[in-house]
Task: structure prediction
Amino acid sequence: MPNSAPAKRTTASAVGIDFGTTNSVIACAGQDGQASLVEFAAPNGPGSVFRSALCFWEEEGIRGALGHEAGPWAIAEFLDFPQGSRFIQSFKSMAANPLFEHASLFEKRLRFEELGQIFLTHLLAHGGIALADLPDCIVIGRPVRYVGNRPDTALARTRYDAMFAMLGRSVHYVYEPLGAAYGFASGLSDPATLLVADFGGGTSDFSIVRVEAPGSPRRCTPLGSAGIGIAGDRFDYRIMDRLVLPRLGKGGTYRSFDKAVEIPAGYFTDFGDWSRLALMRNRKTMAELARLKLNATDPAAIGRMIAVIENELGYALYDTVGHLKRALSSQTHGHFHFEGPGLTIDAEVSRADFESWIEPDLHRIGETVDQALANAGLAAEQIDHVFLTGGSSLIPAVRRLFETRFLIPAVRRLFETRFGEERIATGNELTSIAHGLALMAQDPDLSDWVAPDGE
Result:
């Protein structure tokens, strides 16, 4: 197992933690009021972004004992030994899901908070942060709205409390886009009204903040927020649904009492959630798929689905999907090529194709932006700056959504002398939230930023 960085005594007066669906980031604020990102000496080189992933395996010679790693080390462990390990990613998306009770890992069952505590232990260790030396003020980012059709916010709060209890400090929960807004506001020299759009892996969240001039007794005031459980993971699934799942039997039929019946969509639901896909390799699921293959009109397609699960191809599939999505952010066409045991896919995809696949999602995201404006009691014309952050903010169709709302010709003419094209800004897509949370942790009015318990 890879070694963590040696624990070091932190001199930070406050810490901000962005516990993300796809990536997590830690920032420390010093006595000088500045914040810096914690670096991790990852296998492929140092960096400040830590993948929100876990890998488990059975320890040899110790019955029931589990070995585990997190972040890029978890990915490395899994790729070295896929058949004998269990890989979990995006487990944050289970926080508000009452149907998720535990993850079955060999002979153990681990609840959400137990997974979270294991993850935090590795996150801090690889960042070289000694648990005992953490400062008293810790600010944690949380979504405005959790993932799920009917997310249980109270349950998510209970699970978060249990997960972060291991830090041994009082923690403060703040909406993630407010963290990014606070950091962005620190660079403004004039009063302004700011909208931050945070596109994570599981949720898209929006917050509006009023920023006063530097030196004002109260520099920032949150005005309103809104969120939706649609983001990068959903976009990934749209690609999976179009390019991969038809090759695994989706849309096909099976024989039932001499009738051809469409294969239930439930067989493919887990392919939309990486945290569940990694857990499909169990005796019950594999037996069901074996029976389905016997009766399928196209048994080879079900055989390919079985191969994906048995050979632990989920990570490689989603990695290929991610490469295509990123390529289409900078190019008008991309090539999707996947080759693994039992499955080969080659396809050319245009940006226009991808944008048509995610159009329903973009429409709902746009409605949520409008809801954030309504919650703040503002019109689009009253927003001076828009800051887009998170990986999916780089998708051209996402940016156009904001250009349509905030750079329409009449509004552009109104603001061109003050803001021009800089009215929409991007940058530090993966680290802006943690950086802002650490700065916010030093605010004497921190309590005004804390998310309400029941929301």
Observations:
- The longest helix spans residues 351-376.
- The domain at 14-173 is CATH 3.30.420.40 (Nucleotidyltransferase; domain 5).
- The longest strand covers residues 220-228.
- The mean pLDDT is 90.
